[in-house]
């Protein structure tokens, strides 16, 4: 509020968005929020609008050309403008933003700027320049999880001047921590099905594979568990339905990939289950942080069966393009071939294309491909390390909470009574919820929707 | 086999190896090029236009591959396929258990299908919440234009909103009651409103014990059915008809060259003369004329085809659209003339509607049709 550059590390679910909404009203200024997650961005806009503030808009690649144009033309009418980082490549957008002026620049998920973090987004490196272009507006970098060195990296790359740091504990005392080790995948599946029928809901089960999520949701559905699958392949309008059913209490369990739930405002999630282990402690904390936002007891259950770490380790390997791909990319890039064609021909993933494009635009030299290969190799090493940190959480023989906090140089001061399976857990008790039945026929449903009294005889 | 497969098979059967399999992809996806549009009309497959707008090329190719591997289609020339006997038998089996999508009319309704649905869902959600005194809710659809449309309408009705709500309720109930050919659950259970969020396609599929793809097709078929009813009875369904109206009547998307030719056509220049003036081949100008005939409802073909010839072509074509077949029956007609007549008369998708009977010999009575639908 007193116009000082700030890095704030707030655990998920502690009202990050207030940090920029409140100052905007006090200082009466326009806020530009850079956010890397498209679905999350739209959710945030919806939340702001729900509050009655209509001057919020999101500019991202979800929009059609026409919709984009429509918004850009009216951009000065908005107080809260959300922007995805790749939109910064549009001269038109940049020009317009400069023209209308920005009072506060907010970088959400700021750890994406750090090359040492697992979620590195090359487009984020342009943010330092953006800050200059916009005449150095006051900047707020938000992140839920970042180690000391990543925070320093953020400050440096954003050219923060005399910045302040607000670091809150990553500890969420109302979430109990449980790890269940099982001897086979089949056993793990059985365990999951028993969890979703017994443990308190609403809950989310996280998977790293869409197929597994679908298969187990189908199995749960056969046991009459009110559940749905949610992942990136599901069309946008269908995803909105699932989110809203979950918020409205029509569903008890969501079987999801990590695409789910960051932006939804549901305070009473009681359980977060991991069917596959997350690829880093940071991701783990973000995901379990979606539970217990109301402050009531909630739980994290991580299921582990032998060698589960191979999945995230392999994903990290696959994400790196081969030396041949890197070399060929550079050749074609220099010839000016369109990116879509290069991507198709070399079969690059979106992330691979993003990273290579960034390096190609910002670095050159005769040994380019070897340098880039080395740089990417380093990234794998750091990702591998992240996976092994996660594994050490699973394998710890002392307190899991202490272990988690130790990654952020925090120590546990207070003893918890419902801490983790190693310290001893008691079942969290939750008042039984009434299961809302909504099996109306189409006529009854139309009557209900429009509040028409039924005249059944 | 599912609906997607059956649609691809029927499409391939109707083009009968005269076009590559890509033409079906562009058709389902709804690509607006004059080639796709002409093919759609020429072979009577325009009802399938844009029935799978988010279809990816990879998935489509994969499915075609699978059809070939299963021996349902056969490649007769580089990427040109015909449906095999086995393919036809499977289609017969499929449609003896499943409803044929008689009411599909993709070409006619592709521009309003999604638009109407976005407006309807948002309108129902909004009025339902407002009449329950709930003023805060998350929109179920993120289409900005439709949101604005609804906002505008709500302002327009203002205090009369409860009146609007009961009228909309009445229109929907009437529309879905009488002759609606499928179970109305497929439409109504997808709607959201106060205290209830609509079901996803997957959830409907689970309830009805069928594939998601079938839910999608039956939904689109149902929408196209109600579009036709609403259009015919706009006095009975003023609110729903209002949702079908495009805000701006779109200019017909001619290609540049066709537009140039069209200028001369409107001055009654002959094809040969235009060809000479523009220094283009006669066949190119003919393509332009065809494009105009397909897109402009008011375009008269009489100057290019003698009435008698047109009548003879119409008499032959019933059901079959194959050019060569017609040419053999009406040898005096030029190919260009045949295509022109077909373009003019196939707007209703007659080949599609008659496909089952003509090509597979299946006849469903109206009773059978109703029975084919699973009950919700």
TrEMBL record, chain B:
Domain Helicase Helix-turn-helix as annotated: residue spans: 258-342
Protein name (database record): RQC domain-containing protein
One matching Pfam family: HTH_40
InterPro entries, per the entry: Helicase_HTH, YpbB-like
């Amino acid at each position: 509020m007193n116009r000082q550059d700030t890095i704030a590390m707030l655990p998920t679910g502690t009202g990050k968005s207030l940090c920029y909404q409140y100052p905007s009203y006090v200082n009466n200024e326009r806020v530009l929020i850079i956010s890397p997650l498209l679905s999350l961005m739209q959710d945030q806009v919806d939340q702001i609008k729900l509050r009655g503030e209509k001057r919020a808009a999101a500019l991202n690649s979800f929009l059609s050309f026409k919709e984009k144009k429509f918004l850009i033309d009216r951009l000065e009418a908005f107080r809260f403008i959300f922007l995805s980082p790749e939109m910064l490549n549009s001269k038109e957008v940049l020009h317009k933003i400069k023209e209308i002026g920005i009072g506060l620049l907010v970088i959400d998920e700021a750890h994406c700027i750090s090359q040492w973090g697992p979620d590195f987004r090359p487009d984020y490196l342009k943010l330092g320049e953006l800050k200059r272009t916009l005449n150095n507006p006051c900047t707020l970098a938000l992140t839920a999880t970042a180690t000391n060195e990543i925070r320093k990296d953020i400050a440096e790359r954003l050219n923060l001047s005399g910045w302040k740091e607000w670091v809150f504990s990553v500890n969420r005392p109302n979430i109990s921590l449980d790890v269940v080790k099982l001897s086979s995948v089949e056993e793990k599946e059985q365990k999951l099905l028993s969890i979703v029928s017994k443990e308190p809901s609403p809950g989310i089960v996280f998977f790293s594979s869409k197929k597994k999520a679908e298969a187990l949701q189908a199995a749960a559905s056969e046991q009459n568990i009110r559940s749905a699958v949610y992942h990136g392949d599901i069309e946008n309008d269908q995803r909105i339905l699932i989110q809203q059913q979950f918020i409205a209490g029509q569903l008890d369990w969501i079987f999801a990939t990590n695409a789910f739930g960051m932006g939804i405002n549901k305070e009473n999630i009681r359980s977060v289950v991991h069917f596959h282990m997350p690829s880093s402690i940071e991701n783990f904390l973000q995901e379990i942080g979606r539970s217990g936002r109301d402050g009531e007891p909630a739980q994290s259950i991580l299921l582990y069966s032998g060698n589960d770490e191979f999945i995230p380790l392999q994903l990290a390997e696959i994400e790196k393009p081969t030396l041949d791909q890197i070399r060929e990319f550079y050749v074609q890039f220099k010839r000016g071939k369109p990116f879509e064609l290069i991507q198709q021909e070399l079969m690059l993933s979106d992330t691979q294309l993003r990273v290579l494009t960034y390096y190609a635009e910002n670095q050159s030299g005769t040994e380019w491909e070897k340098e880039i290969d080395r740089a990417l190799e380093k990234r794998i090493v750091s990702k591998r390390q992240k996976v092994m940190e996660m594994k050490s959480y699973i394998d710890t023989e002392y307190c899991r909470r202490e272990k988690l906090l130790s990654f952020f140089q925090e120590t546990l001061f207070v003893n918890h009574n419902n801490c983790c399976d190693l310290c001893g857990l008691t079942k969290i008790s939750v008042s039984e919820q009434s299961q809302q039945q909504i099996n109306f026929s189409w006529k009854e449903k139309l009557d209900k929707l429009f509040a028409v009294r039924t005249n059944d005889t | 086999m599912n609906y997607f497969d059956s649609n691809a098979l029927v499409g391939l059967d109707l083009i009968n190896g005269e076009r590559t399999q890509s033409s079906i992809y562009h058709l389902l996806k709804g690509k607006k090029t004059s080639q796709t549009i002409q093919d759609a009309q020429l072979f009577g497959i325009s009802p399938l236009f844009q029935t799978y707008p988010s279809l990816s090329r990879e998935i489509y190719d994969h499915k075609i591959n699978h059809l070939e591997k299963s021996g349902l289609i056969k490649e007769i020339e580089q990427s040109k396929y015909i449906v095999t006997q086995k393919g036809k038998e499977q289609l017969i089996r499929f449609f003896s258990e499943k409803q044929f999508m008689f009411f599909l009319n993709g070409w006619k309704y592709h521009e309003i299908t999604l638009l109407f649905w976005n407006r309807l869902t948002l309108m129902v959600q909004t009025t339902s919440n407002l009449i329950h005194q709930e003023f805060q809710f998350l929109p179920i659809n993120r289409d900005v234009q439709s949101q604005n449309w609804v906002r505008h309408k709500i302002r327009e009705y203002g205090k009369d909103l409860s009146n609007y709500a009961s009228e909309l309720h009445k229109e929907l109930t009437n529309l879905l009651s009488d002759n609606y050919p499928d179970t109305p659950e497929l439409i109504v259970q997808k709607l959201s409103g106060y205290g209830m969020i609509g079901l996803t396609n997957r959830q409907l599929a689970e309830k009805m014990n069928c594939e998601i793809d079938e839910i999608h097709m039956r939904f689109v078929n149902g929408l196209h059915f109600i579009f036709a009813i609403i259009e015919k009875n706009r006095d009975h369904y003023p609110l729903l008809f209002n949702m079908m109206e495009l805000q701006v009547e779109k200019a017909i998307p001619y290609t540049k060259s066709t537009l140039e030719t069209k200028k001369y056509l409107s001055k009654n220049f002959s094809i040969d003369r235009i060809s000479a003036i523009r220094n283009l081949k006669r066949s190119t100008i003919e393509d332009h004329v065809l494009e105009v005939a397909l897109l402009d409802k008011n375009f008269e073909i009489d100057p290019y085809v003698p009435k008698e010839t047109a009548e003879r072509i119409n008499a032959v074509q019933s059901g079959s659209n194959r050019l060569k077949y017609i040419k053999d029956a009406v040898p005096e007609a030029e190919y260009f003339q045949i295509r022109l007549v077909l373009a003019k008369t196939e707007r209703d998708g007659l080949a599609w509607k008659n496909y089952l009977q003509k090509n597979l010999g299946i006849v469903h009575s109206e009773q059978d049709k109703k029975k084919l639908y699973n009950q919700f």
